[in-house]
Design a protein that fits this description.
Length: about 400
């Protein structure tokens, strides 16, 4: 039996996937409301295919609890934020979870850390927790790192088909955990040591962040001299060895906007390009604001109260708002004491989380003269005609071209 600890965006689909493929699973989370919802037969976030997978896992016998279980394998999938000052990983969620696992784990158990961690975290923060319980890592308890790579919006498909990494300092344990993940994973599974697995995961997300920053910086450069960055990238990408990403309003979510900071925090004198990329991407919400002001001036729109924001989530077709560029932009406005936008709408965010939020496209568009599209949800892409009467700042290149559509 396995006990999955932390049933959020990663832990829940992982637990369900194991259960649907014949593994006995108990999912544990300390959030009582979340566990009550799952026990009640409802999922806790929106994701393509999640409800169907939930149904299969229930049929296969998955159960949910706020209690940690006595079992032979634990999979820990709790948050790993960074400390705002030092930029280093805040490993407190991971070490607290492992501490509680150690209170119930039998001798010989394997603890798999799925959470993304900076290189050295398992040695510096997890190993001491095990040793404080009087056990020796590799004898009394085995530690493994199995970082997750799935992307929200395509999680179920990627859980099944992505290649994975298993980091274990004992190759036999690595092979055992590989076999466990092979119950559902059809991709290739590389087995390596823990430190390499930790670094590999952080390096992957940092690669994405740097490449996004390059596109974003190009957008700023091109804007200064009226060049069309989209046309330039399109043509540059016709080169056989060039593949520039699209610029956007910034980077959010719990991964790409967080993990590169771990390297900056741990290697401050060396990780210069990485820090710079983070700063470029974090500057984009302000760039969007200044671009919106330019358009407002050009169109004689007097104040921000005639401007609406479409999109609160950090990417399209998900309900996750963590670190989203829209929230970053609203925070920046608050810091500069700017007056608020008149309306904010996101079809994926049904709860009120910011002031002036509305819950239908019709209500959103009434009285708005400029719409800033911060997220290219399919709902909008498939119904672009609704934007015909307004000016649009399309930060995601999602709205096609027309005289009323402005780009970054
Ligand atoms: N969200 C993503 O797209 C994504 C993708 C790849 C990797 N990751 C990594 O996966 C990890 C988890 O991220 P997430 O997005 O699922 O986070 P999340 O916040 O959605 O879920 C974490 C869950 O852990 C629970 N939790 C925290 N501490 C606990 C404890 N001590 N005991 C029991 N439950 C506890 C919380 O209540 C929460 O439900 C992070 O390290 C993240 O970097 C996330």
């Amino acid at each position: 039996m396995i006990n999955v600890i932390g049933l959020g965006y990663i832990g829940l689909p992982t637990a369900l996937m194991f259960a649907a493929h014949g593994v006995e699973v108990v999912g544990t989370d300390y959030n009582e409301e979340l566990v009550a919802t799952l026990k009640d037969g409802r999922t806790t976030f929106k994701e393509d295919g999640l409800d169907e997978l939930f149904g299969q896992a229930l049929k296969a016998g998955i159960t949910f609890s706020t209690e940690y279980q006595v079992c032979d394998t634990y999979i820990v999938s709790v948050p790993t934020p960074y400390d705002a000052d030092s930029k280093k990983i805040d490993a407190s969620y991971v070490s607290t979870a492992v501490q509680t696992v150690m209170d119930v784990a039998p001798k010989g158990a394997t603890i798999v850390i799925e959470s993304t961690v900076s290189p050295g975290t398992i040695d510096h923060f997890v190993r001491p927790v095990v040793e404080a319980h009087g056990l020796v890592v590799g004898e009394g308890v085995h530690l493994v790192h199995a970082p997750e790579r799935i992307i929200p919006g395509n999680m179920i498909n990627e859980l099944l088909h992505n290649n994975r990494t298993i980091g274990a300092d004992d190759p036999q344990i690595g092979e055992r955990v590989k076999e466990l993940y092979s119950s559902f994973c059809q991709g290739e599974i590389a087995v390596t040591d823990i430190r390499t697995a930790e670094m590999t995961k952080v390096v992957e997300n940092t690669f994405r962040d740097i490449n996004i920053a390059y596109a974003n910086e190009l957008a700023k450069i091109c804007r200064q001299d009226g060049m069309d960055v989209y046309e330039i990238i399109r043509i540059a990408n016709m080169h056989p060895r060039v593949n520039i990403l699209s610029p956007g309003p910034g980077v959010g979510g719990h991964c790409i906007s967080v993990d590169p900071w771990f390297l900056v925090g741990d290697y401050p004198m060396t990780a210069k390009l990485i820090r710079c990329a983070r700063e470029v991407n974090d500057s984009m919400p302000d760039f969007v604001l200044s671009r919106a002001s330019e358009i407002m001036k050009e169109r004689g729109i007097e104040d921000l109260s005639r401007v609406g924001i479409y999109g609160l989530t950090y990417k399209e077709n998900v309900d996750d708002v963590r670190e989203s560029p829209t929230l970053q932009m609203l925070e920046s406005m608050e810091r500069h004491l700017a007056t608020g936008f008149c309306k904010i709408y996101d079809p994926w965010v049904t709860e009120d989380i910011v002031p002036h939020q509305v819950h239908s496209m019709n209500e959103f568009l009434q009285g708005v003269e400029l719409v800033i599209v911060m997220v290219g949800h399919s709902e909008l892409r498939s119904n672009l005609s609704v934007l015909e009467g307004v000016a649009v700042l399309d930060t995601r290149d999602a709205c096609g071209t027309a005289p009323n559509i402005y780009k970054l």
